[in-house]
């Protein structure tokens, strides 16, 4: 009897391992998610960011530790998780507004102004589609959708560049620098461009070959080189083409012709998988807490129902917040300054200092690390405070 039980356990374990292997992602699937997670509405908002800095300034901008902090690790973890939640929820709010704005403009242009839909009505119509899409529980099942969205995104950007390169004005017709009071808005939008930062660890965790994620020719470096080229080119040529008339998303500046109306629709459709991808991060933070709190067992009907309910609630929250402040450029700037600056600049240098605190490092290297991290921290805090203040002020004035 004991032997039979042992064999049953071994068979069950083998089945679970096989199921996990099937659910893990290939390097190509991970690259598709990485590109989709980083080349979203943010790349279309970069020309608006450049308008707040000027052509020249904007492109130049591109249990260890001290003993007194060791018992505060749980507090630090909670703070980082809270900022991650705020960031990812904020991204999803931006996607709601982006989808609604572009569908409204698309319908208006197609009907020659005869039909002008309300943004809230569009959000209400899109809501059930987003809820169902977020019921997909594994990243590997989203890989095909991400790949299709990337094709739409690249095609749409290619057509946008075609528009940008027509009758391009000389660079000296645009200001090299902008009013210093607008720099905080540039900071917020530019830092928001790190919209895929929260996906890095979850993507690596769900890979079949996690070691292939890093390294010189790894998935991360390959993906981010592509992303960086897209951002630089879109920001530079978008502002050069439209100047201070550039809108919160470059798609809203496109001419009212069938070709560019199709681009709007393509880029809007491409955001749907991105929403599900970004919401995956809050789910991985909140769901384990709910499981522990209510002692939910894996693979039970109640557990599945609770998981789906949590996903629906998160989607509902993002749509309610998006409906409350439907200002795309200001929301992007606020999320970037408040949350992305913390995750991309402030927290990493603090974590590195704590991690290297007890390492055997030469005085010269330690001095370099200390000066470097202090400068990054000051830069991050300045952008955090000024960007958040200016963004909130502009949101209040726009209401």
UniProtKB/TrEMBL annotation:
Compartment(s) of residence: Membrane
Membrane topology, from the record: Multi-pass membrane protein
Transmembrane segments: 78-100, 115-136, 143-165, 185-203, 210-233, 265-289, 301-324, 330-354, 375-396
Domain Amino acid transporter transmembrane span(s) in chain numbering: 76-392
Keywords from the UniProt entry: Membrane, Transmembrane, Transmembrane helix
Organism: Leptotrombidium deliense
The protein, known as: Proton-coupled amino acid transporter 1-like protein
GO molecular function, one term: L-amino acid transmembrane transporter activity
GO cellular component terms attached to this protein's record: vacuolar membrane
PANTHER family for the chain: AMINO ACID TRANSPORTER, AMINO ACID TRANSPORTER TRANSMEMBRANE DOMAIN-CONTAINING PROTEIN
InterPro entries xrefs: AA_transpt_TM
Domain of life the protein comes from: Eukaryota
């Amino acid at each position: 009897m004991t032997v039979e039980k042992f064999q049953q356990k071994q068979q069950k374990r083998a089945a679970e391992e096989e199921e996990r292997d099937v659910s893990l992602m290939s390097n190509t699937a991970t690259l598709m998610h990485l590109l989709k997670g980083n080349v979203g509405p943010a790349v279309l908002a970069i020309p608006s960011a450049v308008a707040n800095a000027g052509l020249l300034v904007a492109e130049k901008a591109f249990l260890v530790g001290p003993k007194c902090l060791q018992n505060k690790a749980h507090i630090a973890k909670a703070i980082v998780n809270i900022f991650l939640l705020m960031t990812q929820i904020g991204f999803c709010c931006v996607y709601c507004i982006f989808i609604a704005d572009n569908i409204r403009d698309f319908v208006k242009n197609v009907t020659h102004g005869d039909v002008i839909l309300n943004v809230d009505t569009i959000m209400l119509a899109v809501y059930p589609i987003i809820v169902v899409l977020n019921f997909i529980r594994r990243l590997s099942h989203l890989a095909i959708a991400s790949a299709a969205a990337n094709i739409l995104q690249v095609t749409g950007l290619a057509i946008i560049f075609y528009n940008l390169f027509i009758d391009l004005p000389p660079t000296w017709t645009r200001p090299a620098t902008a009013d210093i009071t607008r720099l905080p808005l540039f900071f917020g939008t530019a830092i928001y461009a790190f919209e895929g930062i929260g996906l890095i660890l979850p993507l690596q965790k769900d890979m079949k070959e996690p070691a292939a994620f890093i390294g010189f020719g790894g998935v991360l470096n390959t993906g981010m080189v592509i992303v960086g080229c897209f951002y630089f080119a879109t920001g530079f040529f978008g502002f050069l083409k439209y100047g201070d008339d550039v809108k919160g998303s470059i798609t809203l500046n496109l001419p009212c012709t069938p070709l560019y109306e199709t681009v709007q629709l393509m880029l809007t459709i491409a955001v749907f998988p991105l929403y599900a991808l970004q919401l995956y991060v809050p789910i991985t933070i909140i769901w384990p807490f709910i499981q522990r709190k209510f002692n939910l067992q894996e693979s039970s009907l109640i557990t599945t129902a609770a998981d789906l309910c949590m996903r629906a609630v998160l989607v509902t929250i993002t749509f309610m917040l998006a409906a409350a402040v439907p200002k795309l450029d200001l929301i992007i700037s606020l999320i970037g300054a408040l949350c992305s600056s913390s995750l991309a600049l402030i927290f990493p240098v603090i974590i590195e200092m704590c991690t290297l605190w007890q390492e055997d490092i030469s005085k010269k290297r330690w001095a370099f690390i200390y000066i470097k991290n202090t400068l990054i921290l000051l830069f991050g805090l300045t952008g955090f405070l000024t960007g958040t203040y200016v963004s909130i002020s502009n949101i209040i004035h726009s209401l």
